[in-house]
Amino acid sequence: MLFFAVRYRSKSSHWPISLSKNIVCSPTLVAAFQPPYLDLYCSLATMSADRLEAVCVRLEAAVSRLEGCGGGGGGAIAPSSESVEAYDEILNGPFAKFTQLSATIGGEVETQAVYVKDGFQAVRSFLVIASKHKKPSDEAKLQALMKPISAAIGEVQSYREKNRPSKLFNHLSAVSEAIGAIGWVALSPKPGPFCKEMADAGQFYTNRVLKEAKEKGTQTHTDWVRAFMQCLKDLQAYIMKYHTTGVVWNAQGSEAPVTVAAPTKAPAPAKPAAAKPATGGGPPAGLFAALNKGGDVTTGLKKVSKDQMTHKNPELRASSMVKAADAPKAASSAPKATTAVKKPPRLERRGNKWEVEWQDNNPNIVIDDTATKQTVYIYKCTNTTVQVKGKVNNITLGQHHSVFRGTVCFMKFAWQLGMELA
Q: Phi then psi for 23, rounded to 5 degrees?
């Protein structure tokens, strides 16, 4: 029999676990417990058969876990998931409190918090992939991995725009302005400062929420703001510690499992089906549809004038014929086509908003004096190329035929007539 004092050195903790067991050990089992992970000290001793069996089961389980981490006997230990565990502390800490308080407030705030949670969970999934795989060499694959994050950002911001009349609009705006912080995974070499800038962008509305909460004495809304800001603060600290210059990938890992779908052509519009003639055997469906209108069923009837009434005109009764009314005057001619209003082109910045309007055949528009707090609004531009250098908060494209070049976190398309992204 061999006596082992097993001392386990845990990478994720600062204290060792010591076991003293008497077991029969093969050279293979001993080799599995080599420094720097385990120290084995052996001496002769004896122990009972029952105790020996229990210890062997525990050590065999430990060997299986070590072999699983290394990808097989003698393999290297898999990279630590310490960064993912640290991110989970944010999700289970201030972010969990934020979602709980959002549910307490209810209404649009609770609904928007669901989209925010989707975004934070998408970031976690991205970090898990980065910890196990190397960075994709194809930019399209990398963008496909980030697509759920950008989609969540768009959902949060779109929900705010759809609920402007809400009494909780300041809450929605605070989150909408700061949600771009989770887009840090696409930035390098300074994702930490970018996260702070996004948090500062939402501070204008969080101050409004705090002011209203102080006036009304609603502590829940104050706690909601503090939880949200603490979540962003912890996120920035996490980025500075684990991903200082950008997302850290596993250089020894395999290629990230992602597929990029090839662009597909839009299906041709289906031809309208020919109307089937009404068949006998019952009243036409159109009659029931008219009766279902209720009191509105008579709105399409023509009013009978007094000169067409037989009880007031005996000559009409004699002939049993109603004189045809004079043919109505020809309907007014079709409305003339309205000429498009053409305004002078404009390119200027108002505060934090760049406005590009009424540009025609201009391929050389460049916006380079940008900041992450700024927005770009492009409207009524035809055959125009707009290049945005640097990072901005969002870009809104209105009615236009244009080409856009740039990199942003969120883009909104409103009534676009034609567009090309380059």
A: -140, 165
